[in-house]
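Need tokens for this chain, all 130 residues.
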Amino acid sequence: MTQSIFSPPLPNNALKTKNDIRHWGNLQGSSTALVLANATKLATGPVLLVTADTPSAIKLEKELDYFLQDQSVDVQLFPDWETLPYDNFSPHQDIVSQRLETLYQLTQNERRVFIVPINTLMMHGPGGLY
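Here are the structure tokens for all 130 residues:
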């Protein structure tokens, strides 16, 4: 069954079954961001998007900002430290500030989109999310 990208199907929160999985395929260019923006408009709480890497996270953030500019939904990127664990210098202050702001916003349970690159999400210890 074909669905419109302007009203994408979302999983039913009341029924958590293995058959309640949604897959959007064959999306090209910015159509991924368009589908995610339309899905975000239908969501009632925060949305977490995981990307393959930091450049795709930054690209998705800009595209979602464009598609959601008329909505009251903020898009927030959780950036990578951009340093290695054994480096002798600290991350830039702007990165630290943005990460702290994002972690604070996660606790607010507001209607918002959070974008996290997978390498940032999987980082173990104080730099990652777990």
